Amino acid sequence: MRDNDKQRSLPQAEADGIIEGRNAVIEALRSGETIDKIYLAKGETDKTLGHIASRAREKGIVVVEADRRKLDGMSRTHAHQGVIALAAMREYVSVQSLLDAAAEKGEAPLLVVCDEISDPHNLGAILRTAECAGAHGVIIPMRRSAGLTAIVGKTSAGAVSYIPVARVSNLPATLEELKKKGVWVYGTAAEGTTSLYDADLKGPAAIVIGSEGSGMGRLVREKCDFLVSIPMKGHISSLNASAAAAILLYEAVRRRM
After folding, report:
1. If you average pLDDT over every residue of the chain, what do you get?
2. pLDDT by residue (tens digit) across 210-227?
3. pLDDT in tens, 119-163
4. Which Gene3D superfamilies match (predicted)?
5. Whose CB among 20, 55, 56, 194 lies 3.0–4.6 Å from 226's, allowing a Cys bridge?
């Protein structure tokens, strides 16, 4: 790679929220920049990478070990030095703040819970629909999930600036806490025993959308008060995660009008 090609790649990398190289990541951590996730080269345990990992964990940042091929594929500069950080478009909030926002508006909480939605385009589309539908917030897990990266921000068409997102370490425990606070949990499942049009989405509701491949995890599924099925009239038996979210959200909107 020629030096001028490398320099040309830097502005685009910055625009995409990709921070590469040890000094750049250390400076981002020092300056307080909101970081979504840090990828470290698997098997490398030198002092600098260890310092980056410990500083990140102190700040509650997800640290993921990745093989060199993954890092090489993510890199725009081809000089990542074994570490790449993804900047977050905005800070995460607490789950309680989502409930407080609904209370301030005098509305029953309407939340979207994403169970391991790893495709950033799907998460961005869900954020966009949630914002348009007037949801009070979105909840995602810290691990095995897309975060508020630049790709998600672009896909959300700007919704990431308006819809608050909480990120939690234990999704089943979070659902249990929501239930204790009077929120009903509705999980989407093809084999659900409650039809979408029989689900009472007028009251406090958290709509759980499962991952693109395997749907909701077992522990998350067990925390749902209702498993809701969307009527399927065609030959294909499942919907894209963001499409399923849109259907349930706007049924909730219709019930609340």
Report:
1. 88
2. 887 778 889 999 999 999
3. 999 999 999 999 999 999 999 998 888 888 888 998 999 899 999
4. 3.30.1330.30, 3.40.1280.10
5. 194
Q: Of 20, 54, 87, which residue sits at a domain end? A: 87
Q: How many alpha carbons lie under 13 Å from residue 201 in its C-beta half-sphere?
A: 29
- Distance of alpha carbon 165 from alpha carbon 36, whole angstroms: 12
How high is the pLDDT of residue 130? Answer: 97
pTM of this structure: 0.84
- Return all residues near 154 (Cβ < 8 A) that are at least 6 apart: 124
Host domain of residue 250: 95-256
Distance CA(91)–CA(145), nearest Å, equals 16
Residue type, position 101, single letter: A
Same domain, 107 and 233: yes
**DSSP codes of every residue in 15-64:** HTTEEESHHHHHHHHHHT--EEEEEEETT---HHHHHHHHHHHHTT-EEE
